[in-house]
Amino acid sequence: MTRGGHRPRVMVVDGHAIFADCVALALCVHGHETSEVTSGPITLRRVLDAAKRFAPQLVLLDLQLGHDSAECVDLTAALARRNIRVLLLATDDQPAQLLACLEAGAAGAFDKSGALDDLIHLIEDTAGSNTSTSIPAREGLFSSSPDPGTATAGRPEAFDNLTRSEGEVLVGLIDGLSSHRLAVERGVSVATVRSQIRAILLKLDVHSQLAAVALARQADWPHSIASSLIPRG
């Protein structure tokens, strides 16, 4: 679906058609020309073909498209190589995938539970920016590094305070698993996993799952817990 308007052009790639329609309509009101990729399988090739036809300046990309994390990263990188800015729609349940996409060239990210007006403002700021600097929408949620003043930042021993279960959950987050997927694979409730995640953040002295994953990478962790400890289906 394409709606008339003025530049910059924005392509919305989202598996939820109603949400994509709302965003596209709001952008149209603000004078943007938009295109949507929503229905049917949303593959890397389909998105790139649509981008070639529409020539957007910015792609709004939902990370909950059903792709594996590698394909989302590949799509972000492919769009960035074409000088198309990518703004990610994500949740705090996708820290490793979000961080990998930011590292692959995404211009920024937005919490999908945020207000539509805030998203529109961020889209306009991102599309109109002349820099390649990452533009995080929510400082606490999408900060990709630990607070510089924290005592635990960069210290591998900070992870020694984690219980075995908490360590396994953190390994799952690093592997890109959501709390729902972790609950299923570990045979526990989502509430239990979320409680363990809160304990991880408290013990590592960080404020988001993304920051915890970034801290683990910075400290070259895990050094004693292997990914194989988490059962795979």
Please give a quick description of this structure.
The chain is α/β, with parallel strands linked by helices and 233 residues long. The chain is built from ten helices and seven strands.
Q: Which descriptors would you attach to this protein?
A:
alpha/beta; disordered N terminus; 14% strand; seven-stranded mixed β-sheet; Rossmann fold; disordered C terminus
Set out the fold topology.
Layout: E1 2-3, E2 6-13, H1 17-29, E3 32-37, H2 44-54, E4 58-62, H3 69-81, E5 85-90, H4 95-103, E6 108-111, H5 116-128, E7 135-136, H6 139-142, H7 164-174, H8 179-186, H9 190-204, H10 209-218
Parallel strand pairs: 2-3, 2-4, 4-5, 5-6, 6-7
Antiparallel strand pairs: 1-3
Poorly predicted runs are 1-5, 130-154, 224-233
Overall average pLDDT: 78
Instruction: Give the full name of the CATH homologous superfamily of the largest domain.
Output: Response regulator
How many beta-strand segments?
7
Q: Any idea of the CATH topology of the largest domain?
A: Rossmann fold
Q: Name the overall outline.
A: elongated
Question: What is the first-to-last residue Cα distance?
Answer: 38 Å
What is the level 1 CATH name of the largest domain?
A: Alpha Beta
Question: How many strands, which pairing sense, and closed or not: the largest β-sheet?
Answer: 7 strands, mixed
Q: Work out the count of structural domains.
A: 2
Secondary-structure element order, N to C: EEHEHEHEHEHEHHHHH
CATH architecture of the largest domain: 3-Layer(aba) Sandwich
Report the β-strand fraction as a percent range: 5-15%
Q: Work out the helix count.
A: 10
Structural class: alpha/beta
What strand line-up does the widest sheet have?
1-3-2-4-5-6-7
Task: Report the C-alpha radius of gyration, rounded.
Answer: 18 Å
Fraction of residues in H or I helices? 40-55%
